[in-house]
Amino acid sequence: MSQVSDIGRGWVRLIGPGLLCLAASACEGQRWPSAEEAPPPHDDSRVVGRASVIDGDTLEIRDRRIRLWGIDAPESGQQCGHPDGRRWRCGTEAARALADWIGQRNLNCDPRGKSYERLVARCTVNGHDVGEWMVRNGWALEYRRFSKGQYENAQKAAIDAGVGIHEGTFEPPWEYRKRRRERSRQ
């Protein structure tokens, strides 16, 4: 049980009496708790569960906002350019691609810190790094300031293949946010 999360420890606390009950053959009426009834994880513990996609780099699992570590995806309202000059809502498409890929599968998110009251975590689906998938498929950029090159090969593959935002023109999400902040101050 080396990978027991706080939820797992909560289950152990909750089913401990149930195990004794099984041993004593006195389990009639025993109600097993649902995953929603398990104690919430602490900020420094692994978060496991089905996710709702907020945007291309933010998820929510059981009311916990999680920022994907090491990547930066286009903002929800951000637009990118097709090679022919047409604009498209690349932020919306990045979120949709992530939601489609995750589907109803559970995520395992290992905390790396906090940012704006959100947990920053490296998340996996069936052992596959979600951030790496987003970068490799051109839906996010490596946020090198934090990733320190972790997704360098994935980003090179996306650029070479011309997928996602790399099929045309785009503004890096961090520059898009900076420009919007500056514009709002004027």
Q: What kind of sheet is the major sheet?
A: 7 strands, mixed
What is the SS-derived class? Answer: alpha+beta
Tell me the fraction of residues in β-strands, as a range: 15-25%
| Rg on CA atoms, Å | 20 Å
Distance from N terminus to C terminus (CA atoms, Å) equals 55 Å
Number of domains as seen in the coordinates: 1
CATH top level is: Mainly Beta
Order of helices and strands: HEEEEEEEHEEEHEHHH
**What is the CATH third-level topology name?**
OB fold (Dihydrolipoamide Acetyltransferase, E2P)
- Quaternary structure type: single chain
Q: How would you sum up the global shape? A: globular
Name given to the CATH architecture: Beta Barrel
Nearest-integer average pLDDT: 81
| Number of helical stretches of at least 4 residues | 6
Helix content: 25-40%
Protein name: Thermonuclease family protein
Organism: Lysobacter korlensis
Domain TNase-like: 53-168
InterPro entries: SNase_OB-fold_sf, Staphylococal_nuclease_OB-fold
What this model shows, in words?
This protein is an alpha+beta fold. The chain has a single domain, classed as OB fold (Dihydrolipoamide Acetyltransferase, E2P) (Beta Barrel), CATH 2.40.50.90. 35% of the residues lie in helices and 24% in strands. The protein contains six helices and eleven strands. Strands 1, 2, 3, 4, 8, 9 and 10 form a seven-stranded mixed sheet that branches. Strands 5-11 form a two-stranded antiparallel sheet. Strand 3 (58-61) and strand 4 (64-68) form a beta hairpin. Helix 3 packs parallel to helix 5. Mean pLDDT is 81; it is low at 1-43.
